[in-house]
Design brief:
Blueprint (H helix, E strand, L loop, with lengths): L7 H8 L26 E5 L8 E4 L5 E4 L7 H10 L7 E3 L5 H4 L2 H7 L5 E3 L7 H12 L4 E3 L5 E2 L5 E6 L14 E6 L2 E5 L5 H7 L10 E3 L11 H7 L3 E4 L12 H9 L3 E4 H4 L1 E6 L4 E6 L1
Parallel strand pairs: 3-4, 4-5, 5-6, 10-11, 11-12, 12-13
Antiparallel strand pairs: 1-2, 1-14, 2-3, 7-8, 8-9, 9-10, 14-15
């Protein structure tokens, strides 16, 4: 990991631009990802990066969006995932917020794979991890596009719109989380980063934007996210939780698992099922799991 110093001026300059089926499983030893294809389906890969987040979206037109890159030591692993999936370039990289378990591996990904655009909330951090991310963006001669509610990512045949952050949240990094809603025909996904109840309350001011089929559960299933009010508005059929096995935080919390089950939501978890793939043809969503 590079340990280079970046001035505050660089930080500021980079920030100013602006019917369900049963899952199948594969053992780690024989793990095979589907080869890249351009089809009538959208593929969403919730990558198993342990205690962290990293999600790849492949559109029906073969465009790729990466949301987060896991922790620092997961960068090479994410790059390997992407190469196995046949990803030759990334149309967009989204850093949901500056926490290391979300952006730690992004510098390695951006260094390794040509990237066309980068999105992140307008909040900075002083960690070396965050500086490494900024340097990787600079080295690609890119400017960070500041995420905010209403901003859209230009994709062919797919609507991808940020619905958070809604407001200003000071030093509350989780509240700044970029929340992306992706809609393909009659199916939709919501990717929430580490958004907690403070951000959820602001999103609830526009409840018509929230209902989706698949919810990427906020903050690894922490009880500081996925309030009952938020869940009632989202009304997901499926939920995906990205967390590390036997992690020190106790994620996902039992109260959240029970809340989802009581709401009759089918739950998938990377800590127990490995990488989770959702494939939608625009009408139906099929899930597969791989360890």
């Amino acid at each position: 990991m590079r340990k280079l110093y970046i001035t505050l001026g660089l930080i500021l300059s980079l920030l100013v631009a602006c019917s369900p089926s049963l899952p199948t499983s594969t053992t780690a030893a024989s793990q095979q990802f589907p080869e890249e294809d351009v089809s009538d389906s959208i593929h969403v890969f919730f990558l198993d990066v342990g205690q962290g987040d990293s999600t790849l979206i492949r559109t029906p037109k073969g465009q790729h969006v990466l949301i987060d890159g896991g922790d620092n030591h997961k960068g090479d692993e994410v790059v390997d995932y992407l190469k196995q999936l046949g990803v030759k370039s990334l149309d967009a990289v989204i850093a949901t917020h500056p926490d290391a378990d979300h952006i730690g591996g992004l510098d390695i990904v951006i260094d390794a794979i040509p990237t066309k655009s980068v999105y992140a909330p307008r909040v900075s951090h002083t960690t070396q991890t965050y500086k490494d991310f900024l340097l990787a963006v600079k080295n690609r001669d890119l400017k960070i596009k500041a995420t905010k509610a209403g901003l859209e990512i230009p994709l062919d045949g797919v609507n991808a719109k940020f619905i958070a952050p809604v407001g200003e949240y000071g030093k509350d990094l989780n509240a700044w989380s970029a929340v992306l809603k992706v809609t393909y025909k009659d199916t939709s996904f919501l990717f929430t980063g580490d958004a907690e109840t403070r951000s959820e309350a602001d999103m609830l001011k526009s409840p018509e934007l929230l209902q989706v089929d698949v919810l990427k559960v906020g903050h690894h299933g922490s009880d500081t996210s996925t309030s009952q009010e938020f869940l009632n508005a989202v009304k997901p059929r499926y939920a995906v939780i990205s967390a590390g096995k036997d992690n020190k935080y106790g994620h996902p919390k039992s109260v959240i698992i029970n809340r989802l089950k009581k709401s009759k939501v089918t739950v998938y978890r990377t800590d127990t099922q490995g990488t989770i793939t959702a494939v939608s043809d625009g009408t139906k969503i099929k899930f597969e799991t791989m360890r």
